[in-house]
Amino acid sequence: MSVKVNKVLFKVKRAIKFLLYHSVLIAGSIIFSAPFIWLIGTSFKAQDEMYPPSWFPPAPPIVIKSPYLGANANELPIQPPDVNDEKWNRFLEDGRKIVKESFVELKNKIPNFIHSYLEENYLIDFTLATLYRRMPKELWTDEEAKYIKWIRQEITPELIVSSFDNVYRRVALGDILIKTWSAESYNVGNAETLKWNIKGECAKLVPQLEYFPRKSIEVHYDFSKHREFTLETVAPCTISSKDFKKIRLSLRGDRSWYTVWATVDVGGRRFEATEAVYLQNSTWQDVLWQVYSEEDKSIMMKSWYTLRDIGNSPETPPGMMRLRLQISKVSYPIVLLRKAWGNYREVLREVPMSRYIMNSFILVILNIVGQVFSASFVAYAFARLRWPGRDYYFILILATLMIPAQVTLVPLFLIWKNLRLYNTLAPLWVPAFFGNAFFIFLLRQFMLSIPRDLEDSALIDGCGYLRIYWHIIIPLIKPALATVAIFTFLWVWNDFMGPLIFLSDQAKYPLSLGLFALHAWMIWFARFDLMMAAAVLMTVPVILLFFFAQRQFIQGITLTGLKG
Questions:
Q1: Domain, as residue range, for 291
Q2: Of all helices (H) and strands (E), which one includes residue 324?
Q3: Helix, strand, or coil here: 550?
Q4: Which terminus of the chain has fewer Cβ atoms in its 10 Å neighbourhood, N or C?
Q5: Does 389 lie in the same domain as 537?
Q6: Cβ-count burial 39-65 (b if 16+ within 10 Å, e if not)
Q7: What is the predicted pLDDT for the residue at 210?
Q8: Considering only 142-146, 227-231, 371-375, which range has the smallest mean pLDDT?
């Protein structure tokens, strides 16, 4: 009986240990992966969704009819950290009540169009959040009567109109500007002079509403039965098709993420957009379409969408300009994908990321080939061949590991400059073909574990040293070579100091230095969302390499550490 009890207890203990070990592993993986999860979640956020901090961005709205009211989480009332829940809930309810009462009192001073929206929660909460951002901090700890009095005094008709302008999500069109290759600008028209026509049964044009600070014409649509409509305007324009460079349209979106395709007729020629614009912003944006040129191949920041010449335009004679916008509805899963991919699309479109990635992969491949060949070749000479001074030179190579890289940085720079190889990729990959002390030591220790009987048998059969190296040694040290390749990939992919010292041409930048240049540009425009997307593109190859090569990496490190 005791034997059975002991077996049961043994199985229980083993199960407990199994659960305990795996619980620790799972908890550790969650903790260490949290920064990467945060990075990915932040890369999905829009520019105005960065605050308050959250793991993932809010889902985009399901838009069937536009305009509508909406607001982001950071545009609504946020509880101050030093205010407890009870006081916050009480002040919030009282604040909403005062805002509603003030709306009723000021109704006659507010444009009639807004009257039907005065009971909407988005408008009330946005107005209250605007007041909270400028409210004195002492009112949170003072008497509630003073808080109510201050809220009532601060609500004005101008504040209500401004709040409504921010929560009123709509598609609106502003002025049109055309630029030539000689940098001349021509204002084609604005909301008052342009005559827009609409084709489609699901949309209509609404004239400019006087209370909005920026003049525009609104587009109201209903996609409950139809999926697309077309907007079109024709205006005088004396610019020829050869002089035409770009067209700028002031556009306000409604965060629907629906598709806008543009076609421009200028100087008797028709130009068609090669990529779509999305109605992803709820603020005014200047959308640029530019004719395809050498600038599209350059490494400059691309702030435009490309136009391609598709031939003559029989509908629009010379001396006139025609802009046609086709707006199409897409399914909600496509909207979610566009929201998730939006920042990555902008980074890949505006920044020459493809050039940076190509340069990084060129350096990675050349360095891996160079390190694997040179380090294994030198290690073979130290581990398997007998020659005078072998141990002395091996100690000399190991001694170079104690020299800081900063000490040799200036001499190396002068050497490559005198060789006229500055501002080329050569200083970043040629040294790999001369071996690395650490990799030579790593492979030598691995080769020492290989029995000499194999080598002696090959020599008896007439095999030379080079054939022994290639046909016997190399196949047996594949785990160690995989370790060398992985380490080389990580070092080259993340190397920043080398490209910073030896490169000045942005066309030759690898991804690490390209992200630094991108960081300087993004900081100026406060585009932290695009920076997070670019950081994910930098990190993903390393993560994939670990997952696909972790077995070879662990095997190479383990065997190298146990033998030799």
A1: 171-330
A2: strand 320-328
A3: helix
A4: N
A5: yes
A6: ebebbbbbeebbeeeeeebeebeebee
A7: 57
A8: 142-146
Q: Tens digit of pLDDT for each residue in 209-220?
A: 656 667 888 899
Burial class (CB in 10 A: 0-12, 13-18, 19+), 517: middle
Residues 192 and 301 in one domain: yes
User: What was the pLDDT predicted at 2?
Assistant: 67
Task: Say if residue 358's pLDDT is above 80.
Answer: yes
Rounded Cα distance, 259 and 331, in Å: 11
3-state secondary structure of 248: strand
DSSP one-letter string for 515-540: HHHHHHHHHHHT-HHHHHHHHHHHHH
* Cβ-proximal residues to 475 (8 Å cutoff; 6+ apart), any chain: none
**Which residues in 486-497 are b (16+ Cβ under 10 Å) and which e?**
bbbbeebbebee
The CA–CA distances, whole Å, from 355 to 27, 472, 492 equal 39, 40, 16
CA distance 266 to 241: 6
State how many domains the chain has.
Answer: 4
Residue 338 lies in a domain: no
Structure tokens at 428: 């970043």
Query: In terms of DSSP bridges, do strands 284-291 and 305-312 run parallel, antiparallel, or are they unpaired?
Result: parallel
User: In sequence order, what are the residues at sequence separation of 6 or more whose Cβ sits closer than 8 angstroms to the Cβ of residue 108?
Assistant: none
Tokens of 18: 């199994």
Q: Please check whether residues 124 and 183 belong to one and the same domain.
A: no
Q: Does any domain span residue 61?
A: no
DSSP string, 439-492: HHHHHHHHHHTS-HHHHHHHHHTT--HHHHIIIIIHHHTHHHHHHHHHHHHHHH
What CA–CA distance (Å, rounded) separates 46 from 342? 8
The mean pLDDT value for 407-417 works out to 89
Task: Report if residue 472 sits inside a domain.
Answer: yes
Preceding amide of 52 cis, omega within 30: yes
Confidence of residue 563 (pLDDT cuts 50, 70, 90): very low
Count CA within 13 A, CB hemisphere, residue 447: 25
Residues 6+ apart with CB under 8 A from 121: none
Q: Are residues 39 and 186 in the same domain?
A: no
543 and 36 Cβ atoms separated by less than 8 Å: yes
Residue range 465-480: mean pLDDT, rounded: 86
Task: Indicate whether 206 and 307 sit together in one domain.
Answer: yes
> Hey, what are 145's tokens?
């009567």
